[in-house]
Amino acid sequence: MEGGNSPSLQLQQLPLATAAVSVQPHTDSFSYKENLIGALLAIFGHLVSSIALNLQKYSHIRLAGSKDPRAYFKTKTWWSGLLLLVLGELGVFSSYAFAPLSLIVPLGAVSVVASAIIGIIFIKEKWKPKEFLRRYVLSFVGCGLAVVGTYLLVTFGPNSHEKMTAENITRHLVSWPFLLYVLVEIIVFCLLLYFYKERNANYIVVILLLVALLGSMTVVTVKAVAGMILVSIQGNLQLDSPIFYIMLVCMIATAIYQATFLAQASQLYDSAQISSIGYIVSTTAAISAGATFYLDFTGEDVLHICMFALGCLIAFLGVFLITRNRKKPVPFEPYISMDAMPGMQNMHDKGIAVQPDLKASFSYGALENNDNMPEIYTPATLPIVQEQHGSKGVSAPPYRVLEHSKKE
């Protein structure tokens, strides 16, 4: 009887074993651990990068305000900033190998918060407490909102983890959602490029949309390259696959063109506008690319998706408030216009931009522009000694004519 009942007992235990196996993928604790590692690496990288950029800026300012004849690349401060910058970028790069793309990209708000705090700490001007709070209240509110948004992003971020093998990346690359996304992105990119190049639509939104579309492809390839390197380090070699080098070339190419458009935008617009609008647009495009290529939000419930979207919106608002408080550069206003002097040669005709045109608005030693006072720009008249020649009825010329004879 016992021998006859043993098979039934074994059959009854099989569903329990399979149930235990189905619960075992409840390695959500490990996946959340990977999310935490990736988020901490991204936060560390952005913080170190902000410190590095401010160190390099400090080295430039220090050399400009001193009589030191050395170039900036010969100072220890600049090299320290460069090493920290490389370390920070490596931290951000490695974070893509652990956490989903949609979680890492919005954490770029940390660099904006760090730059704002560093700027407030190392500011040279002295303010009274009331003026200080009134001036930087937007920065404080923005920093608080960015921190809250970052907390929501880390807590409710997507929890999809997949081995970045060559087979998985190739399968995602030829999937129809990503192909449709790439087709739409190429069409939008070509239209924006046409209006930007041919129609001279030099709007900041147009340029930063071009940057965002390129950046979405950059982060997709960065995650693929970083993930394949991590899998290779763990023992499964992926560096001999052609898809690795295809992703590497696409990453470098899109990053170069992205930097080119950013440089053009920085020549036309203020850095505060570029930081706020660029962060919002680039983050939105990158999250869309991660959702279509890596399927970051597959299996996530509605609550987590809504809280993640709320965290993104709060981070966007925080970055906007921080950058809105920055000072706009004031262009230099001359005090003397050489063109307004009678008899002075205009140097603009020779291509030497020494003085601005008279049409430009400038003030002469005043705190306000005197554009409504045209007499400032007219040359002053001097008293002239007149001599009468001929009859009294004939008007004399407004200048003295001195005639010298040969005897004199």
TrEMBL record:
Annotated stretches, region: Disordered: 389-408
Subcellular location as annotated: Membrane
Transmembrane intervals: 36-56, 77-97, 103-123, 135-154, 174-196, 203-231, 243-265, 277-296, 302-322
Keywords for the protein's UniProt record, in alphabetical order: Membrane, Transmembrane, Transmembrane helix
This protein's GO CC annotations: membrane
Record membrane topology: Multi-pass membrane protein
InterPro entries cross-referenced by the UniProt entry: Mg_trans_NIPA
GO molecular function: magnesium ion transmembrane transporter activity
Similarity remark: Belongs to the NIPA family.
Name listed for the protein in its UniProt record: NPAL3 protein
Organism: Ptilonorhynchus violaceus (Satin bowerbird)
Gene that encodes the chain: Nipal3
